[in-house]
């Protein structure tokens, strides 16, 4: 285990992690407190870990908002919640053909994973059956890796999704247990943990991450990354708060590009072999330093998010190409990467 008894050598940290070492809380603080003049060294060390497990490959994700708004929860960051006045489009469930059309668009955009997302506390059994029917067709017709984010799940619902071919459930922790009730009061942090465990018990992989920039301390970030490691999640999306007008957090803006990059490095060192994704808010907060995000991370969303616009796929492809990286659409390392267009 690395500890901060003296100045950290980032390359020594990479050596330790690559040899199976873990990162204690003091070293995690040192990563987040890294002086900006040392940031390139920190990124280079994080890239060594990323490269060991993922090479120069990048996996793309594509989101489909299958049900927008109309949510009874009070999550302070979300434009779809009951406490939001954000002027977003609101609609009930998309039909099966529209969900398939989204999957085809994902494939055209070179995404490996198609994500079906729905607002709300959790789905009804009828809604789960609707997603399951679409999932079966997506698997049969397109063979895509499939992730669903549907809110709180019951064991029997999770099993239906798994049996339909859903590979992975996303349910973000978003912030630490200690901060959670300041962000949301209509469900608990433990509710989220329970849903992840239900999905895992049904045989699906876990995707769970964080929203950085909601007033958390460094201790909060460290608690979340440690919890995700203990849960054995396969994919960690690191979002950066988009302060949407009309939400309770509309005036919160705490981040700069350097802070965002240090957070990504923290998640890479503490979860070395886990897929790490630069997610919502990257365009706003990383800005011109977006390409550096792919030194610790090996995944990104392509195109738009749930209710906010992203940059164009062609801009994402250009970043990847300029870095000398390659998009992978089937699996890491063992598959031939696709050519960027």
Topology:
Layout: H1 10-18, H2 25-32, H3 39-54, E1 57-67, H4 96-108, E2 113-118, H5 125-141, E3 145-149, H6 155-163, E4 168-170, H7 180-183, H8 189-201, E5 205-207, E6 210-212, H9 218-231, E7 235-240, H10 257-270, E8 275-278, H11 282-285, E9 299-301, H12 313-322, E10 326-327
Helix pairs in contact: 1-3, 3-10, 4-5, 5-6, 6-8, 9-10
Write up what this structure looks like.
The chain has 341 residues and is of the alpha/beta class. It has one domain (10-327): Aldolase class I (TIM Barrel, Alpha-Beta Barrel), CATH 3.20.20.70. Helices cover 38% and strands 13% of the residues. Strands 1, 2, 3, 4, 5, 6, 7, 8, 9 and 10 form a 10-stranded parallel β-sheet that branches. β7, α10 and β8 form a beta-alpha-beta unit. The termini are far apart. The model is unreliable at 1-6 and 332-341 (pLDDT under 50). It is an enzyme of class 2 (transferase). GO terms for molecular function: 2 iron, 2 sulfur cluster binding; 4 iron, 4 sulfur cluster binding; biotin synthase activity; iron ion binding. Catalyzes the conversion of dethiobiotin (DTB) to biotin by the insertion of a sulfur atom into dethiobiotin via a radical-based mechanism.
């Amino acid at each position: 285990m690395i500890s901060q008894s003296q100045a950290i050598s980032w390359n020594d940290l990479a050596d330790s992690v690559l040899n199976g070492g873990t990162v204690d809380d003091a070293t995690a603080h040192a990563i987040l407190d890294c002086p900006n003049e040392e940031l390139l060294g920190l990124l280079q060390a994080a890239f060594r870990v990323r490269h060991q497990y993922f090479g120069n490959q990048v996996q793309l994700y594509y989101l489909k908002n299958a049900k927008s708004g109309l949510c009874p929860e009070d999550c302070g960051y979300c434009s779809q919640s009951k406490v939001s006045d954000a002027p977003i489009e609101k609609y009930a469930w998309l039909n099966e053909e529209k969900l398939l059309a989204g999957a085809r668009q994902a494939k055209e955009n070179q995404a490996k994973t198609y994500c079906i997302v729905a607002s709300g506390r959790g789905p009804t059994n009828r809604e789960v059956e609707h997603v399951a029917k679409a999932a079966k067709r997506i698997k049969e017709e397109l063979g895509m890796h499939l992730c669903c984010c549907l809110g709180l799940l019951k064991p029997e619902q999770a099993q239906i999704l798994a049996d339909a071919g859903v590979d992975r459930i996303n349910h973000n922790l978003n912030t630490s247990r200690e901060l959670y009730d300041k962000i949301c009061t209509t469900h608990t942090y433990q509710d989220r943990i329970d849903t992840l465990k239900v999905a895992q018990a049904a045989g699906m992989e876990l995707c769970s991450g964080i929203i950085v920039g909601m007033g958390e301390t460094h201790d909060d970030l460290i608690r979340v990354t440690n919890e995700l490691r203990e849960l054995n999640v396969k994919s960690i999306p690191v979002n950066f708060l988009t302060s949407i007008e009309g939400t309770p957090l509309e005036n919160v803006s705490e981040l700069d590009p350097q802070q965002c990059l240090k957070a990504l490095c923290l998640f890479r060192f503490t979860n070395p072999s886990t897929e790490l994704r630069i997610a919502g808010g990257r365009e706003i907060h990383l800005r011109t330093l977006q390409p550096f995000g792919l030194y610790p991370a090996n995944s990104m969303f392509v195109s738009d998010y749930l209710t906010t616009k992203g940059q164009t796929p062609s801009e994402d492809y250009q970043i990847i190409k300029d870095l000398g990286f390659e998009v992978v659409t089937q699996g890491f390392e063992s598959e031939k990467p696709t050519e960027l267009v």
